[in-house]
Amino acid sequence: MPDLRKDPVSGRWVIIATERAMRPNDFKIEPHAPLSADVFCPFCEGNEDKTPPEIMAYREKGSYANKKGWRVRVVPNKFPALKIEGGLNKQGVGIYDTMSGVGAHEVIIESPLHITSLTEMSIWQVEEILWTYRDRMIDLKKDKRFIYGLLFKNVGRAAGASLEHSHSQLIVTPIVPITVIHEMEGSEVFYKYRGRCLFCDMVRQELATDARIVMEGKKFYSLYALCLPFPL
Q1: Which of 5, 99, 171, 222 is in Cβ range 3.0-4.6 Å of 214 for a Cys bridge?
Q2: Long-range contacts of residues 152-156, Cβ cutoff 8 Å, at least 24 apart
Q3: What whole-number percentage of the chain has pLDDT above 70?
Q4: pLDDT tens-digit profile of 15-25?
Q5: Vertex 86: Cα angle to 85 and 92 (nearest 5)
Q6: pLDDT tens-digit readout, 62-78
Q7: pLDDT recorded at residue 40
């Protein structure tokens, strides 16, 4: 069973999950090798029995769970950082706080084809992936043990991915990461001091300067975050 352990100095919780070391790896021998039909991929359509049973999927009408016919498929991570079963079992070991590594760790397989990037997909395929994120977060929110969810995507060995087939991961935890707490507190301090929304001010300033706008849509802006060093 994984553990959650708290650093009493920084207040940061860490996950200790030894099973993660047993993950398969596409990138061990030739990290830059071209795709090969001879490379076995458990995420490709037709290999549904090589993953844990699916939690949900967007499927073609008339297809069956854990069979062909899916467009987006969600399965439990075979080598999870956190496990869904059990209670929190909070304990104090001297000055240290620990709890069982209870949570959810899911894999969102983004295409039945052996695609390695979202850029190879159509807009409607990407839309279904985003709807899948929403569906899973709403469902896991019903579990009162969990209070924070993190969606992330690693691409390539250098980023931590063990398989090249395009996929995302969702981790849901019983604690809120210290970085997120700091961001919330910083936003609250800004509002109390200035009486304005920090993120609204960010958007207004970036639109005015147009220095870090990556993309602008009807309902969103994508900004390039830049942190400059300042003298103390």
Answers
A1: 222
A2: 155/116, 155/117, 156/27, 156/31
A3: 86
A4: 888 766 556 65
A5: 135
A6: 999 999 999 999 999 98
A7: 86
3-state secondary structure the chain: CCEEEECCCCCCEEEECHHHHHCCCCCCCCCCCCCCCCCCCCCCCCCHHHCCCCCEEEECCCCCCCCCCEEEEEEECCCCCCECCCCCCCEEECCEEEEECECEEEEEECCCCCCCCHHHCCHHHHHHHHHHHHHHHHHHHCCCCCCEEEEECCCCHHHCCCCCCCEEEEEEECCCCHHHHHHHHHHHHHHHHHCCCHHHHHHHHHHHHCCCEEEECCCCEEECCCCCCCCC
| Each residue's pLDDT tens digit, 177-186 | 999 999 999 9
Amino acid at 156: G
Instruction: Provide the residue type at 176 as one letter.
Output: V
